[in-house]
Amino acid sequence: MKNSIIALILILFVCVNILNAQDEGLFSSSGNSKSAIKAMLFSSLVPGAGQVYVNHKRIVNYIFPIVEIAAWYGYLHYDKKGDDKTDEYKDYADEHYLRSRQHFVQDYIWRKCVDGYYRTDLYYNSDATDWQDTNYFLLDDTNTQHFYEDIGKYNKYIYGWDDWFHTYCDTTNGFEESYQDPSTWDDEEYCDQYLRRRLSEEFITIEDSLGEIITGPFISANRDTYISMRQDAEDFYSTSDLFEYTIIFNHIFSAIDAVIMANRHNRIYSYNESKWDVNIKTTFRSNKLTPELTITRRF
């Protein structure tokens, strides 16, 4: 979109210069009547150009091009920062997240916690490394936009983050035996509670005997960092969008102002032109046609 807008502005700027070459003194105000259509066209393409066409001595004409330059700088600057931050969080995810970890934990949950009594709508595919639920685990197999969004957005994909995996799980013994409190993965009642609540996207918290909140194994500092990086990228893009809107409205307001300015100029010009009127006509006097010069002045 950015390249298209730049190309369009450049093409329109060339058109303005062609029109300028075809109309001598186009951008000078010599007291002649000015076309409101031309003024609107010029300012629509290059903010401030229509105002200069009507009256190049008007200082406020240059506010529009100054705003245009500043808005384009802001748009390109923050769009670039958004792109850079996007590349940064993707590299971070590639470094800290693996689908194989996510699949391993899903398989473990299936073997330890799931049977037909608890989740009859789930089934295990013995030829795959993960458990299947077309309404739940749908992590893309390639690094698509949805993949990078889902691993930060949904709690159910936390298992692929390296800090979570290395804290609570290893590929030899399954989940670490050290994680026994407040409950264990092998506890059937806990597994049932875990699946029913987690699969409905609720976050488990358990109060101990002292009333303190203990979170389950769903904490990943790396995921939190990743979410923060994605938010930074979105903020940069949002700021870029504001500058883009500024560019659009600057063109619109400049075009409207150019029309108003041209009409005002033409009213003044029309009044001045009609103040003096010189005519040559013939009159019939004494049975003769007599030429007559008349000069009239409006007061």
Please state the overall shape, judged from the principal axes of the Cα atoms: rod-shaped
Structural class: mainly alpha
In this structure, how is the largest beta sheet organized?
A: 2 strands, antiparallel
Could you tell me the number of beta strands?
A: 8
> What's the end-to-end separation, in Å?
57 Å
Helix fraction, binned, reads 55-70%
Regions with pLDDT < 50 over 5+ consecutive residues? 18-30, 114-135, 175-188, 194-215
Computed CA radius of gyration, to the nearest angstrom: 37 Å
Number of helices: 9
* Nearest-integer average pLDDT: 70
Spatially, the strands of the biggest sheet line up as 1-2
The proportion of strand residues reads 5-15%
How many domain regions?
A: 2
Order of helices and strands: HHHHHEEHHEEHEEHEE
Question: What does this protein look like?
Answer:
A hairpin with a 3-residue loop joins β3 and β4 (174-175). The protein has a two-stranded antiparallel ribbon. The chain has a two-stranded antiparallel sheet with strand order 3-4. Strands 5-6 form a two-stranded antiparallel ribbon. Helices cover 56% and strands 11% of the residues. The chain folds into two domains: 2-83 and 237-297, no CATH class; 88-232, no CATH class. The two termini are 57 Å apart. It is rod-shaped. The chain has helices at 2-22, 36-45, 49-54, 63-96, 99-113, 145-153, 162-168, 188-198, 221-273, and strands spanning 123-124, 131-132, 169-170, 174-175, 205-207, 213-215, 276-285, 288-297. Mean pLDDT is 70; it is low at 18-30, 114-135, 175-188 and 194-215. α2 runs antiparallel to α9. It is mostly helical.
